[in-house]
């Protein structure tokens, strides 16, 4: 990411933390969600708002191939195929 993209990514990350806190998520949940977001954006070198469904599919497929600790499952019957992390 260039400097502007990194600044945008940092801003979105802070907003993510704020929203999770305001939703009343537990600290362990906030930590897990924020670690997942950091890992994805770091690996793909993209700001979260520029990630595509194909980016996420590629990322999670690679995790699955590498037998990483994180598992994934697409939400059924969702046209946009959002990906949900499970622990």
Describe it.
This protein is mainly α and 87 residues long. It is 59% helix and 9% strand. It is built from 3 helices and 2 strands. It has helices spanning 3-22, 27-44, 53-65, and strands spanning 71-74, 83-86. Strands 1-2 form a two-stranded antiparallel sheet. Helix 1 packs antiparallel against helix 2 (27-44). The termini are far apart.
- Label the structural class: mainly alpha
Number of strands: 2
Strand fraction equals 5-15%
Main β-sheet, in a few words?
2 strands, antiparallel
Rounded to the nearest angstrom, the radius of gyration is 13 Å
- Low-pLDDT sequence parts: 80-87
Tell the overall outline.
flat
Mean pLDDT: 81
Distance between the termini: 29 Å
Helix count? 3
Share of helical residues: 55-70%
* N to C succession of SSEs: HHHEE
**How are strands sequenced across the largest beta sheet?**
1-2
Helix/strand layout:
Layout: H1 3-22, H2 27-44, H3 53-65, E1 71-74, E2 83-86
Antiparallel strand pairs: 1-2
Helix pairs in contact: 1-2
Quick summary of this structure?
The chain is mainly alpha-helical and 87 residues long. Helix content is 59%, strand content 9%.
Describe the structure using short key phrases.
87 residues, mainly alpha, two-stranded antiparallel ribbon, 2 strands, flat, disordered C terminus
